């Protein structure tokens, strides 16, 4: 997989990056406009590129671009160029393949049965192995994204129907994925057998007959006025056509492993995932964190924006005032300024600034969702001290991240993860905090309504905390320097 080169001035390099967002509309007027709105609601899941493929009487139309949804689809003329009552869209953050227009989804191809557009969220763990096999068979790849593997597997399938070709392709891939696919007869939504990545089904207003929506999160249903119907189940294919919705389940039952980080960070706070409101989940996580790692303090300060709900829960449980001690600047672009050595250390202040009046002379507890490399945490702690904080304690609403994700989340190599190489006490010294604590793994599960983590059946994918990778990591074979424990897991 191609590593994304980041600007060293960009503090986003010290963060987990979202997977991707998918959205689809079937049988609704202005389907492309609705899809653009849905992608706007899913902007947090990918900010590098966006694309829409529509279908109408004149066939398929496509428009893609690098950048944010509003920049690509903000012009009414672009939407007008995408006619039809069906459309699929995709927001991209690259976890496999470089950032280039050829990798922007949805991917579209013409087959003997007609056109097909595919939007994919997640990561295939045997994509490289499949790609080598397909190239040997004569397949010509037009992109470097693993998502194109689906297209070629569908193309070479000997089955007659589009649905059966898709099933044939799905049974050959390993990994975590949700898909929205569109051909001239139906729209289909798919989740991997373990249900790692999310996908929901919604229905538009009663005045629109058989108008349906598929989306990564419920917040995208809300923006287009669609009613939430249900989550697409793990291993399920939802087929939507002019007769309505039907369900196909071609896979054997497999243990559910929904990504637990959706509750901690990835999903938007106003979404409901797997039946649980994200906002309430994060507050419960914060409350559990307070019970586990309380310390005397004067104010609770969230690291915006993802730390806010957990900090609220922490403050309520601890009985300590909640204050916005850090103000986030939402209008900073990724290429705001070309750094020089003497200003590089000021980079974090482009996005965060201290609210001195709220923290000067006070013992503060900073609440954040995670620590990745630790560089941003160190700068924020330093910022608090410069603003006059008497003590700075840091609390993290996830367990220590000790392993890389191979299921669609862009994370650093394991040796770059601070928690993989240092104890909590060492991490506290590195970031300069008076104390540091993470929520325990069992505490996280308790906050999500479990008694604790059941090692035999966790119910979630928590591999970034535990190294418990439930899906084979075929493409790691031959890369022994990266993750020896994972290779042992795969029998290498």
From TrEMBL:
In the C-terminal section; belongs to the purine/pyrimidine phosphoribosyltransferase family. Its EC number is 2.4.2.14. Catalyzes the formation of phosphoribosylamine from phosphoribosylpyrophosphate (PRPP) and glutamine. Keywords: 4Fe-4S, Glutamine amidotransferase, Glycosyltransferase, Iron, Iron-sulfur, Magnesium, Metal-binding, Purine biosynthesis, Transferase. Pathway: Purine metabolism; IMP biosynthesis via de novo pathway; N(1)-(5-phospho-D-ribosyl)glycinamide from 5-phospho-alpha-D-ribose 1-diphosphate: step 1/2. HAMAP family: PurF (MF_01931). [4Fe-4S] cluster binds at residues 259, 405, 461, 464. This is Amidophosphoribosyltransferase. Residues 20-243 form the Glutamine amidotransferase type-2 domain. InterPro entries: GATase_2_dom, Ntn_hydrolases_N, PRTase-like, PRTase_dom, PurF, PurF_N. Its cofactor is Mg(2+); [4Fe-4S] cluster. It comes from Roseomonas populi. It catalyses: 5-phospho-beta-D-ribosylamine + L-glutamate + diphosphate = 5-phospho-alpha-D-ribose 1-diphosphate + L-glutamine + H2O. It comes from the Bacteria. It is an enzyme of class 2 (transferase). The keyword rRNA processing does not apply. Binds 1 Mg(2+) ion per subunit. Binds 1 [4Fe-4S] cluster per subunit. The active site is at residue 20. Mg(2+) binds at residues 306, 368-369. One of its GO terms (molecular function) is amidophosphoribosyltransferase activity. PANTHER family: AMIDOPHOSPHORIBOSYLTRANSFERASE. Pfam families: GATase_6, Pribosyltran.
């Amino acid at each position: 997989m191609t590593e994304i080169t980041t600007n060293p001035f960009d503090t986003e390099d010290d963060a987990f990056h979202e997977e991707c967002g998918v959205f689809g509309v079937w049988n609704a007027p202005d389907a492309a406009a609705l899809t653009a709105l849905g992608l706007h609601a899913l902007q947090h899941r990918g900010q590098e590129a966006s694309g829409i493929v529509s279908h109408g009487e004149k066939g398929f139309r496509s428009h893609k671009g690098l950048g944010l949804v509003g920049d690509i689809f903000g012009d009414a003329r672009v939407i007008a160029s995408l006619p039809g009552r069906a459309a699929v869209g995709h927001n991209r953050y690259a976890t496999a393949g470089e950032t280039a227009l050829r990798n922007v989804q949805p991917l579209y191809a013409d087959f003997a049965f007609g056109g097909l557009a595919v939007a994919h969220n997640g990561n295939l763990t045997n994509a490289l192995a499949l790609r080598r096999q397909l190239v040997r068979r004569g397949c010509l790849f037009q992109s470097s994204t693993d998502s194109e593997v689906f297209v070629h597997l569908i193309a070479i399938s000997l089955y007659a129907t589009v649905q059966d070709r898709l099933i044939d392709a799905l049974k050959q891939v390993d990994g975590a994925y949700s898909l929205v696919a569109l051909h001239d007869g139906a729209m289909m939504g798919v989740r991997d057998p373990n249900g790692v990545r999310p996908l929901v089904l919604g229905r538009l207003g009663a005045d629109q007959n058989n108008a349906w929506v598929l989306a990564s999160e419920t917040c995208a249903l809300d923006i287009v006025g669609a009613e939430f119907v249900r989550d697409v189940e793990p291993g399920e294919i939802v087929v939507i056509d002019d007769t309505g919705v039907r369900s196909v389940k071609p896979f054997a039952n497999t243990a559910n492993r929904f990504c637990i980080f959706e509750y901690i960070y990835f999903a938007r706070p106003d979404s409901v995932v797997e039946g649980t409101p994200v906002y309430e989940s994060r507050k419960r996580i914060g409350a559990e964190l307070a019970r586990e790692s309380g310390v005397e303090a004067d104010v609770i300060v969230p690291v915006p924006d993802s730390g806010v709900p957990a900090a609220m829960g922490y403050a309520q449980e601890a009985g300590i005032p909640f204050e916005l001690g850090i103000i986030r600047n939402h209008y900073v672009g990724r290429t705001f300024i070309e750094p020089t050595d003497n200003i590089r250390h000021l980079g974090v202040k482009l996005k965060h600034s201290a609210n001195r009046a709220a923290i000067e002379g006070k013992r503060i507890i900073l609440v954040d969702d995670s620590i990745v490399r630790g560089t941003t945490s160190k700068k924020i702690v330093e910022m608090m001290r410069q603003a006059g904080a008497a003590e700075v304690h840091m609390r993290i609403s996830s367990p220590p991240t000790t392993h890389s994700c191979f299921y669609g989340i862009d994370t650093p190599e394991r040796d770059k993860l601070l928690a993989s190489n240092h104890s909590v006490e060492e991490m506290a010294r590195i970031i300069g905090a008076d104390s540091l604590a993470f929520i325990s793994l069992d505490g996280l599960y308790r906050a999500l309504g479990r008694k604790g983590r059941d090692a035999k059946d966790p119910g979630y994918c928590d591999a970034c905390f535990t190294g418990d990778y439930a899906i084979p990591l075929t493409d790691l074979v031959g890369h022994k320097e990266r993750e020896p424990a994972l290779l042992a897991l795969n029998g290498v």
